[in-house]
Amino acid sequence: MRTIKSLFVLSALALISCKDSAETTVEQTPDFKIEYQKFTLDNGLEVILHEDHSDPIVAVATLMHVGSNREKPGKTGFAHFFEHMSFNDSENVPVGANRKMIPEWGGSRNGGTSNDYTVYYEVVPKDAFEKIMWIDSDRFGYMINTVTEAALEREKQVVKNEKRQRVDNAPYGYTDEIIRKNLYPQGHPYNWTVIGALPDLQAATIDDVKEFYKQYYGAKNASLVIAGDIDIDETKKLVEQWFGEIPSGPDVEEQNFDPVVLEQTKSLYFEDNFAKLPEVRMVFPTVKNYHEDSYALDILSELLSGSKKSPLYNVLVEEQKLAPRVGTYQNSSELAGEFVFRVRANAGTDLDQVKAAIDAGLTKFETNGVNTSDLKRIKAELETGLYQGVSTVLNKAFQLVQDNEFNGDPSFITQRAKLTNAVTAEDVMRVYNQYIKGKNFVMTSVVPKGQLDLAVADSQQATVWIEEVKQEVANEEVSQGEEAVYQKTPSKFDRSEPDFGKLPVFKSPAIWKGQLENGLAIYGIENNEVPLVQFDITIPGGQLLDPKGKEGVANLFSDLMMQGTKTKTAADLEEAIGLLGARISMYSASEDFHITGSCLTKNLDETIKLVKEIISEPRWDSKEFTRLKQALETGLKGSEANPNAIASNVYNQLMYGKDNRFGINGSGTLQSTASITMEDLKAYYKNLSPKQATFHIAGAINKSQTEAALSPLKDWTGDQITIPNQELDNTNTAGNLYFVDVPDAKQSVVYIGKLALTATDDNANKLEFANEILGGGSSGRLFQTLRIGKGYTYGAYSGITSRHTVSPFTIRTSVRANATLKSLKIIKDMVTNYKDSFTDTEVELTKNKILKGNTRAYESLGAQLSILRAISKYQKADDFLDKDQNELINMSLEDYKTVINQYLNESEMVYLIVGDKKTQFDQVKQLGKPVIELDIYGNKI
């Protein structure tokens, strides 16, 4: 479950052509819309149905019109907490089933809470559709009688752990709280964060839960969307049966608040225990969602900072070199809106300089006005975003349910496109003058501890409530507890679990192949659901080809290659890509280098021409090199404050050793990147060869069309590349427990694992299958025990990365600091006993879960690209997914036990804890393993 500002992030939708003149002209384009049928049940529940038969899956989204804006001071965080409570038990569904059964059916489920709403959503194979109607409606209408004191206390711990992970243990985690307290007056429902205050949460009672449910969880305070492989008439009957008896609930009064007016600018500072870099934010009150000015404000945000030609980027990044990037965005909610400036500056930068640079950038914007070419580019990008935003059934369900509940029009997507199209340069300047220029705002200076001199001058100290996690707190020990005693709510229908429908059979998609004369292989999947394509050029090598001692070259090279060509500056190239509504990027992975992109199918020819230009005519811009190197240093410095980044880096070092490329961060280290020169990048450029490369493409295009579009790449040449072998370190770390101190950490980050196997090993699939019960998602034992049973964590998972190189099997979690030892003992016992506890029941459960999960696993274009990459990289058969399924079906209990015994031997595993030494170091010694203390770089202390 998540707290979210907005779950449905969909670009404003533009279908336009602009002439290069003072006025933009709108090209008449057919309206984009999502077909749907809408009806209302007698209890007031509004239902929207959308048919999509492209995959045998169904998405369901239920949006309750209640978020943190319905809470009262002293009871903050309750909407989000209630979302968690809703996933516990209900009258007609077995205890614990809501969280456990859906993944076992091959589905996924989650929820989210924002300022304004709570949403519950699932995607399941078609055969589980009626089961979702059963479990979803029971959670909605029949859960309140099952709430127990034990469930209440257990879920409090889960939410507290979520806050510790996302807020207390994260750099800049308190900034949102500071802004809200100072932007919105006391009593305004946006004055507090969605996750709320922990003392409020701790004080919540069962009576509070029941009162909240009775007030806000009536049928007429919700919208339900069902999208996917459904029959409309049949679905209407099922909705009536399962949801029709849910009580309507009382009328929920509409909220109306006057726009926020700040009498003066407020400037506040905060010393952050986890931050390594100073950050400034400026927040201006603006307009709420669906307000006519919100569309111009969205475009304003892109014009101010969204490109290399934007004034803020120009001043802060290029001219004054104060930060690697600058961001602006409009955030509209149901009751109010905010326009945000955000700059995370380079280490040691005085934020007064940053504030002055922002002012200088805004002055430049005022002087130059709106460039019509930029306006055209932004709208072209939004056109592509239109299709990307509704390219899966779940995304379509999200869009329909939000627009129905908050605007009464499920297909408001069509109107949003028109309203965005209509925005002119004059509109943009008008909203800038109305909401930004000369207006008061809230400014935060968040600086590293002990660096108050970096805060904006004359700032006032911000106050936040910071939890003290004590070692022994009785009320933090929770359990499943007794089941509630209650009388079932009567129903006209049998509300017991329905049977599965007809089993949907997953079939591998049809794959076509080709090859250019220069050796570039081509792999494709045709998918005509939306007029989009995604592509990826994979070149073997990646970070393995970094020079020894200069790790990070491949990563820096991938960034520099996107900074212009011989005939285009970085800004010109960015504009050329944007005018096509396309995206092109490069990145270096551990074993491969990637050139990726997406665009409307009609623009693929021109997009590939740009790809060819980028590959064959690098600019080697020394100014951009200097900027990128500074940005890399800033990023690496910032990661030193992140407990999860520390854990990942140290763990890889323990697995592979300091001299192995896989033991070093893909971006390099502050030491390894310091001496990288432009000549190092030019030397790496020779590794970009088509000889062993593969072009993968998925989308609305066939083989002949693709080959025609790729004709510019025929001239791309290069030599065969030799990839060095990586010798594994013989250092034996097995059985040791390593500890890294992060003072005052509210959680301990835990990594446990051992090197296991390669992706091409005969046992690779078997190990993946064998892990499913242990740590494969929310139904795994790790999650079910540490989160659901004990409330020690927000999540716990295990798995292995696919590589040609031997990869580690890893268990990962972040647990409440004072539950570190208890969690380690649970994991240790669970892994030790895993083989003996694995029975025929687990064999069948694994089989069912994975086979059905495959029906939804490859719906998106990105997922289809992953199929093609696996085929080309590991030389798999075109129908390898079908063969993998057969391997799963034929695995015996003895096969599972053999794999578990070989790869999941607990005594061979390394334990790494990143947490507060003062309270936890002596605790973890009690686990009985040799304990070795390391610094944040993995060096022994």
UniProtKB/TrEMBL annotation:
Alphabetically list the UniProt keywords. Hydrolase, Metalloprotease, Protease, Signal, Zinc
Tell me which Gene3D superfamilies the record gives: Metalloenzyme, LuxS/M16 peptidase-like
What InterPro entries does the database record attribute to this sequence? Answer: Metalloenz_LuxS/M16, Pept_M16_N, Peptidase_M16, Peptidase_M16_C
List the SUPFAM superfamilies.
Answer: LuxS/MPP-like metallohydrolase
According to the UniProt entry, where is the signal peptide?
1-22
Q: Which residues form the Peptidase M16 N-terminal domain?
A: 47-171, 529-652
Q: Name one Pfam family in it.
A: Peptidase_M16
Start and end residues of each Peptidase M16 C-terminal domain: 204-382, 675-849
| Family, as annotated | Belongs to the peptidase M16 family.
Checking PANTHER family in the record gives:
NARDILYSIN (PTHR43690), NON-CATALYTIC MEMBER OF PEPTIDASE SUBFAMILY M16B-RELATED (PTHR43690:SF35)
Name this protein carries in UniProt: Insulinase family protein
Source organism of the structure: Olleya sediminilitoris
